[in-house]
Amino acid sequence: MTTPTRRAAVIGLGSMGSGMAGSLLRAGFSVAACDVNPEAVARFAAAGGRAAANPAEAARDADVVVSVVVNAAQTEAVLFGEHGAAAAMPEGAVFVSSATMDPAVARALAARLEATGRHYLDAPMSGGAARAADGGLTFLASGSATAFAKARPALDAMAGTLYELGDAAGQGAAFKMINQLLAGVHIVAACEAMAFAAKQGLDLGRVYEVITKSAGNSWMFENRVPHILDADYAPKSAVDIFVKDLGIVQDMARAEKYPVPVAAAALQMFLMASGASMGRDDDASVARLYAQVSGAKLPGTA
Questions:
Q1: R_g of the chain computed on alpha carbons
Q2: What strands, in cross-sheet order, belong to the sheet with 159-164?
Q3: HEC sequence for 145-181
Q4: Number of other residues whose CB lies within 10 A of the CB of residue 289
Q5: How far is CA 167 from CA 46, 129, 145, in A?
Q6: For the segment 198-257, what is each residue's pLDDT rounded down to a tens digit?
Q7: Which of 70, 134, 144, 63 has its CA nearest to residue 107?
Q8: Which residues lie closer than 8 Å to 109 by C-beta, 6 or more apart?
Q9: I need a labelling partner for 150 at 20 to 30 A (CA). Which of 113, 121, 131, 167 fits?
Q10: Mind telling me the catalytic residues?
Q11: Could you tell me which CATH number the domain at 7-168 has?
Q12: CATH annotation of 174-294
């Protein structure tokens, strides 16, 4: 039997990356990490990790490099930009890309990295910061058998559920975009419903209780409405994430000449919330936008 991989790097220590790095540490990995926020790096070092100044330094000697950045452009910079990880990774190491991106871009990045003798696993994740912190994320992954084998010990530490969705990069990304289409629509629907309930003068706590036990419930309703009830819009997942993700859905659909009118309407609500200076706030802030335009009174509003 081969010895499990125990040297890892994490690029990006935001709400998701910090939890994933912590899960790797608890599983016994030696973990180096970097982030543009020095405070996040300092917290990680205090928790037992190794601080790195940039992706190249973090990736040096790592068997698996986990990239937890926002989008394709940042992923490309992590790999191939100044102080990029690609040249620093040992040959045969695997790069686990967790950013949400267009499947075609994932395929292009994979081909570029694999030409250098490293492996690429297309592995966007779902589940939120709490599941990242407890090692319970869902990964929607695709890549070669070798990439999966090399990444598996790290994935086992970070994942509650691992879906192996194909043998080539891009397939995991495509599955993630279907998830994001539904997630974005469901968030907007939940926000619309709660603001509408407020406009009717209903007890919003009671609305939450009733709907979560009724057919209209969704995972997003159950997860996001407490943010509205608590008037807590600190970003667990920001509005601008769905501006990006539903924008990718629109681009993919346009290329296929496929209509996505419901997703398009949801995108417009996220865009309006972002334009109203809520882009970095929690995505449940769409409810605040509905309240602003309708006069509905939500918790925490005058």
A1: 20
A2: 125-126, 137-141, 159-164
A3: HHHHHHHHHHHHHHEEEEEECCCCCCHHHHHHHHHHH
A4: 22
A5: 38, 28, 7
A6: 999 999 999 999 999 999 999 999 999 999 999 999 998 999 999 999 999 999 999 999
A7: 144
A8: 72, 75, 76, 79, 97, 120, 169
A9: 131
A10: 176
A11: 3.40.50.720
A12: 1.10.1040.10
